[in-house]
Each structure stands twice: as C-alpha cells, then as structure tokens.
Design goal:
Blueprint lengths: L11 H33 L3 H29 L1 H21 L3 H20 L1 H6 L6 H31 L4 H4 L1 H15 L18 H24 L4 H23 L13 H31 L4 H7 L1 H22 L1 H19 L8 H4 L1 H23 L7 H36 L4 H30 L6 H6 L7 H4 L1
Helix pairs in contact: 1-2, 1-4, 1-6, 1-8, 2-3, 2-4, 2-9, 2-17, 3-4, 3-8, 6-12, 6-13, 6-16, 9-10, 9-17, 11-16, 11-17, 11-18, 13-14, 13-16, 14-16, 14-18, 17-18
Membrane topology: Multi-pass membrane protein
Subcellular location: Cell membrane
InterPro entries: EmrB-like (IPR004638), MFS (IPR011701), MFS_dom (IPR020846), MFS_trans_sf (IPR036259)
Length: about 500
C-alpha cells in the first residue's frame, strides 16, 4: 500500500512546528558558516584555496543526494528517514566543532552535508501532508517557507553572535541540542508512516540504476559548478566534469522513462504548476543567494562592519519575512490565489535588487541597504509560500517525498549556479575597475552592483516564467474544492 497522508494523535501544528525547526536548523547551518569563515581560517590556518571547501564539502553531497533521499522517504517512511538524517547531521556537527585541522573539518562537513540532505529531502513532503488542502495547508506551507527564508536571513546574525561572543566552533555545536530535541520530540510526536517498502513487487521498490545515475550526476554537476568559480569555466577539469555530469543526468532521464519503478516519475511534470514552480524557484534562488552573499560582503568589506554588526543588518529582513509568511500569506493566498501572490512577490524582489544596485561605497545603512532589504523581505515572504504551494498542490501523498526532494534539489542547483555566475561577473567587473585605477572600495561596489543587477534579471525572469506558465493555474479557492488540477488524476491514482 502507498503511504497515507500524515495523521497525528498529537496536534498537527506541533508536527508542523517540529518540521519547521528541522528546516530552520538546516538552512541556518548553510548560512551561518559564511560570516564565520575568516575566524575559521585564522583558527585552523587554512589557505584561501582550501577555505572554500569548508562550504563546498557540505554543498556537494547535499545537492547530490536530495532526490535519492526523498524517494527513500516514500519507500521507508518519511519519519524514519527524517530522524535518521537529524541524528547524522547532529553528530557530524559535533565533529565539525571538534575539528582541529582542515582535513578533519572538511571531512566532517562532507558527513554533515549527507545528513543535511537526508533530513531536508522529506521535510516539505511531510509538511504538505499534515493537512490535505485548504487554508490550514496554506498556513503550514507558509510556516515552512518562513523557516527557510527566516533561517537564511538569521544565519549571518547568529553566526556573528556566536563567533564574536563565543568561538567559531559554536556555529557547529549549536546544532547538537537542536537535533537532540528534534529526535526526542519527533520519536513521540511524529506519526508512524508505513512506506511502500524497498521490495514489494511490480510498480514498487527502488530504481537502483536510476539512483546511481542521478546521485553521481548531481554530485559531479554541483562539484563542477562550485569548483568552476575557483579554477574557471574553461579549465580542463570543468570542461571534463561538466559534460560528464550532464551525460549521467541524461542517462537518468532516459532511465526514468523506461524503468518499471522510476526514482522520479516523469509524469509528475505533466503538472504545469509543479514544473513552473520548480523553474521559478531555480531562478529566484539563483538571485536570492546574491542578497545573502554580496549583501554580507558589502556590509563587511565596503562598510567595514564586523561579523556581529553585519548579521544584525539582516535582522529586519528576517522580521519582515516572519510577519508576512506567518501573518499574511495564508489569508492572501486564500483570497487572491497563489499566482497573484507569486507574481507580486517576484515584482517586489526584482525591485529590491535594483535598489541594491545603487548602494554607495560611502553610503548609509538606513538609506543604501535597509529599504531594499525590507522590500526584499516583503517580496520573498509573499512569493515563497505561493511558489511552494503551487509546487506541492498536485502531489499524491505517496510521492510527496520525491517531490520534496525535487524541490530541494532545484533550490540547491539554483543557489550553486546562481552564486557561481554572480561571483564570476562581480569579480570580473571589480578587476576591470581596479585595473582602470578605481579605489578598492569603488571596485568592490562596482562588482556588487553587477551582481545585484544580474540577480534582478533572475527575479524578473522568474516573474515572466510565472506569468506565462501559470496562466491557467487554479486559485486557492479552486484548490480547496479540488486539490488535484485538471489532467493530473493519473498522478494521484
């Protein structure tokens, strides 16, 4: 039997809260490290070339394993997979905090990336199946979106506090108590959920070859992308690994079209809302990584802020995202529908990036950064729940895990590709300005302007994709009456 939607003896909102804490823990960790990198470098004596692997060692397995982990959630039960991931992630976090060499830290970060992928792959699927449909489901997805966006915005702040008040080791140790609470509470509160099983006959089980192809292809692709920023897009290694990764992924798609038990059923993409939501997310996240990365660099390298002060600079963004995601978005989704909310949010995000492209080297935080940040928080707080709701609207409960993994994979690819492209363009512009005799601050801010304008282009492209592909998307009222859009009955069967 396929797994049924989540049903709980305890409060459904307690389940949502636990899952959101898990999501926030993962997202916080992805962003908390950036602001502490200088302290990590000093503490362990890392070279500039190896410092990037403190980030990449996590990103590569995380991006490569999401689809497989999501499918395992459908087969083994999402509760089992989620709690296993939390245990591994927490244990690896302790190892990261205890690391006394760059080798130990990088190896521990790799294990942490595996645990992070296993934890997060099923999260969205679990949240989306707590409530079948309607306003409560919209509120649950809004809470999940807040956990994702709020965790990203709060990461630099918490990283600054822990680094300056305690030590860089605590950016990793902080995950241990959170993980322990999640496991202890999750064992009791999360409902038991019987998965399909690994071997139950025709039409069920796991596509081992497909799993190997997609995991290998995604891992190589993420590695090639993040490594290209350091060695260049025309380097021999990039030109070798990039096409090889694409060949593996093409092989995976071919396999999914013919396998009796596909890892990622291609029929899912018959849903216009699912396909469009993933494409919109890819473009939006590609730009949003520019805010977190280049916004932090602007405040620290150009304005001279310390880690804590730079983190505090992002706090208003997190507050706005929380207010919109938790207080307004569900009601607005019910009244105006997800398409209208998504397009409005994307328009605001585009505007915010354009505003950031006017930030001055000698500017004032309240003029050059804060207004754009508040508009960004409002826009993302509106767009993220609508985008997530559209992506999960037509998903059958038995496929919520793989769809959640797909959604997270799209997010990771968007972030990796977006940050690499933005960094390449920003560095090229900064180098050109420096060669022309500009000061260091002017050269840096010129590079950041290029990155912000490119991010605005990504957000605008996401808006156009949503406007075109989501023309026939149902409103929230229609979704409440019939949660499976026309033409998707075969998916839910």
């Amino acid at each position: 039997m396929p797994p049924s939607p989540v049903r709980a003896r305890t409060s459904p909102w307690l389940i949502v809260a636990l899952l959101c804490v898990g999501q926030m823990m993962i997202v916080l960790d992805q962003n908390i490290v950036n602001v502490a990198l200088p302290a990590v470098q000093r503490g362990l004596g890392l070279s500039s070339g190896n410092l990037v692997w403190v980030v990449n060692a996590y990103v590569i397995p995380f991006g490569g394993l999401l689809l497989l982990a999501g499918r395992l959630g459908d087969l083994l039960g999402r509760k089992t997979v989620f709690l296993t991931g939390v245990v591994l992630f927490s244990a690896a976090s302790v190892l990261c905090g205890l690391a006394d060499s760059e080798t130990a830290l990088i190896a521990s970060r790799f294990l942490q990336g595996i645990g992070g992928a296993i934890t997060s792959a099923c999260l969205l699927g679990m949240v989306a199946t707590v409530f079948p449909e309607g306003r409560k489901r919209a509120q649950a997805i809004a809470a999940y979106s807040f956990a994702s966006a709020g965790g990203g915005a709060a990461g630099p702040l918490l990283g600054g506090v822990l680094t300056e008040w305690l030590d860089w080791h605590w950016i990793f140790f902080i995950n241990a108590p959170i993980g322990a609470v999640l496991v202890l509470a999750g064992v009791r509160a999360l409902p038991r959920e019987r998965g399909e099983g690994l071997r139950q006959g025709q039409g069920q089980g796991i596509d081992l070859l497909g799993a190997l192809l997609v995991t290998g292809g995604m891992t190589l692709l993420v590695y090639a992308i993040v490594d290209a920023e350091r060695i260049g897009w025309t380097a021999a290694r990039t030109l070798l690994l990039g096409p090889l990764a694409l060949l593996l992924l093409i092989g995976f798609v071919t396999r999914q079209a013919t396998a009796a038990t596909p890892l990622l059923p291609l029929r899912l993409f018959r849903s216009r809302s699912l396909a469009a939501a993933n494409l919109v997310q890819f473009l939006l996240i590609a730009g949003m990584f520019g805010l977190l990365f280049f916004g932090t660099l602007y405040l620290q390298r150009v304005r001279g802020y310390g880690a804590l002060r730079a983190g505090l600079g992002f706090a208003p963004i997190a507050v706005v995202i929380a207010a919109v995601s938790l207080g307004l978005s569900a009601r607005l989704l019910t009244r105006f529908g997800p398409r209208a909310l998504l397009l409005t949010g994307l328009g605001l995000v585009t505007t915010a990036f354009v505003l950031l492209s006017f930030a001055r080297a000698d500017g004032v935080y309240a003029v050059d950064f804060l207004p754009a940040g508040l508009v960004m928080g409002l826009g993302f707080g509106l767009a993220a729940p609508a985008m997530t709701g559209l992506g999960m609207a037509a998903v059958a409960p038995a496929e919520a895990g793989i769809t959640s993994g797909l959604f997270n994979t799209t997010q990771q690819l968007g972030g990796a590709i977006g940050l690499t492209v933005l960094s390449t363009l920003a560095n090229a512009r900064a180098d050109a300005l420096a060669a022309a005799g500009k000061s260091r601050a002017d050269a840096l801010i010129g590079g950041y302007h290029t990155a912000f304008l490119t991010a605005a282009g990504c957000a605008l492209a996401a808006l156009l994709v949503g406007a075109v592909l989501l023309k026939a998307a149902p409103s929230a009222h229609a979704v409440e009456e019939n949660p499976v859009p026309h033409g998707m009955d075969a998916v839910a069967a």
